[in-house]
Protein 1
Amino acid sequence: MTTGEKPSAPTGAEECAYTPPEIANSEYSAALREIEDRTQAALGALEQEGRWPEALAIYAGAGAEVDGLGIPRADPAHKPARRLRAYLYLREANALRALGRHAEATPLADMELSAAMASGDHLSIARAMFSLGTTCIANGERERGLKLLTDAKPMFAHHADDDHRQGLGWWHIVMADLSNGGFSDAPPQQALADADEALSILRPLKNWTGIARAHLARAAALERLGDTEGARVARTAARMAEAIGNNGFL
């Protein structure tokens, strides 16, 4: 893959499960909760089935609804609403990338970071930097993208909860993918090390999508190193992880 090509979606947004914050003493609580529930339903159904245009329409509409609430800064729901808005920007940008509309994803990723900063939520900010970094690289802004990704890593590593750990695991997957795709100067040995680190993080979390992706990153790195048998084994492991995730076998 040359630097002029676009990396294929997904670019790490799969790790971004949304955990709704508690919102107390606000007239906007019910409306935000309904938007959250609708978004999660779309994520669970439409994205998994590859129905990206429908998912995109739901995310864009939900974001407009959040904006339309006009929640005052002094209201307890203001920061949770900014956090939800950042998440909706992330999902909308990911849908656009899946549809090959990379240029349209860039301003949304910028807005995601702004919303995340306004929310004050550490995880949302880390995810937004991660999302914007991958989007910049997809659009040819390699230096800016790699800088954002570098800055996002310690933010994921700073906390040990499952959401931050999943983010860190996906960070290593994306770095391996960037090396394997020729978007960074990291050698195949580093790509292999990143894939292995992703596996060590994601296996205890049973994040089967991430585990499958990490095995595929291992396969690509091993092929670059001339280890065709190791690459074959890694691809088999990826298929097994994907099957476990699809069928719920443990």
Protein 2
Amino acid sequence: MDHQFEYAVPNLALRHYVVPNLASFVIPFSIELSPEITERLARALAKAVELIAPAIRDFRMITLIFGKPPAYAIHVGTGIEIYYADMNQDPIATAGNHRICLHAERIASLSAFPIDAAVIVILEELVHVWMNVKDETIAKTATAYLYGGLVVENDQYRTFGQIFDRLTEDARVDQSK
């Protein structure tokens, strides 16, 4: 067994939080996580699934892996599958082929105010796999719409309050000139 990877195993605690009628479409795996991180990820996953569910007509089974880049290794049956993230980046998440790989510790550490960034990261990857969206700009726009109260500005999620504050500040600067 190759010990350079932390192997992810099926995580029933994460699956327990998913909307019951959708749980059969999500197969979560995770590396060994503390109960606090598992709870945070489970709640974010449940919220993301809840937000996207009304927009999906035909659900596909997906494998969700909470692990660490650059490689996500999971035990499947009697074998091991390894998926590599882009080695030129340190991605917080990546999706493709009905599989989502999420950097567990980074997602769990994300801020929950003014928006729950963990939910947004997971939701965006669900948009990629369940809505079959390849383009990042379209995925971000769909994610902002599904989450509600967000817009995408300069490739970043912003709340309407943040946009209002920036516009108000810009107006003050213009008036002082």
Protein 3
Amino acid sequence: MTSAERVRRNARISQARAQGQTWASIAKAEGLSVKQAARAAREHLEAAVPAPVTNPLDLAAFIVETHLDSLRTLRRLSGSRNQPTAVAAASRAPGVALSLLDVSTRLGLAPAPPGSWLFLRDLPTIASAVLAAADRAGVPSDLVLRELGVAVEDADAAELAGPPHLNLTTNEEHD
């Protein structure tokens, strides 16, 4: 067998495995032992690994794309007629999705930590409750906001519009 034929055979074996075929059926179709078929698939995958990425943006794109490719493959395999393959793919998908969320958070593509989404969603309600409690206690809202390190933007406009507009990125007052 020439090296080109070996490369094509290894690619067929790897593709068959990715489609959910068992090692036994692949080995029989290719005239190999199960161990030889697994080795051929591994050689194909090792040969397909790209050169190391040194540019951080390229690395980030590669990591995200690899996760997305994995999720696409798992989605396809979860619909497989081969029950063990479908169950395995369906059980692995949430882990890959969580890993993608973690990577996205670390890259700044999603808020960190993931629970901060809920905090940001609920922040206006929390701020209103704190300000209402301060008002009932007779404490001026601007004093409460300064103590919390939150700036009140345009106090006159805020007074006319209702609850003050909060700038959570700075603790300076705006005129």
Protein 4
Amino acid sequence: MGVGRCYRHGGLTASHQRAAEKEIARQAVLRFALATEDEIRNLDPRQVLAEELARSQRVVRALDARINELAEIHGPTFHSTGIATGEAKPHVEWMMWADARAHLKAVAAECHRAGIEAFYARLAQEDGRQIVALLAAFAEALLGLSLDRSPAVRRVLATLLRQASAGAPYAPDQGEVVAARGEIRAALACD
């Protein structure tokens, strides 16, 4: 990673990798002047860097639309007296677009170096674990069902969570729902 080194493990432990990624993000935030040293103490630099990536993408998209409307990318230049100089320079919006793309590329490279994708994947995995634990506790408390003892309920729950993560509407397989209902009724009848 190029940031710090543990004298025992050479910087290859998971905790060192995460700390190095956070430090890389902090350095990038300071280099891109997204926050000052004082401000960054109260912020997660990975979040700041990810927000800059999203903002830069929006700017490039907006400028893409503008330059697609241009009739010419290069145009003649004129002296202050109004006489043509014979030179052709790029349109100012095209130059802004090129600068914005270069900035986007630099921010994306820093996001990759700082492990932003892995950071958000870890957060999403933790959120998923918490949701499953909450739903399992709910099923146990309300229905007296343990997900360990009810494979059909576990399958329906897994299907619903997969559909929710894909943004799909609620549409579980009806056969699985009927089987889960049967297991729930049987479990409730035993209690």
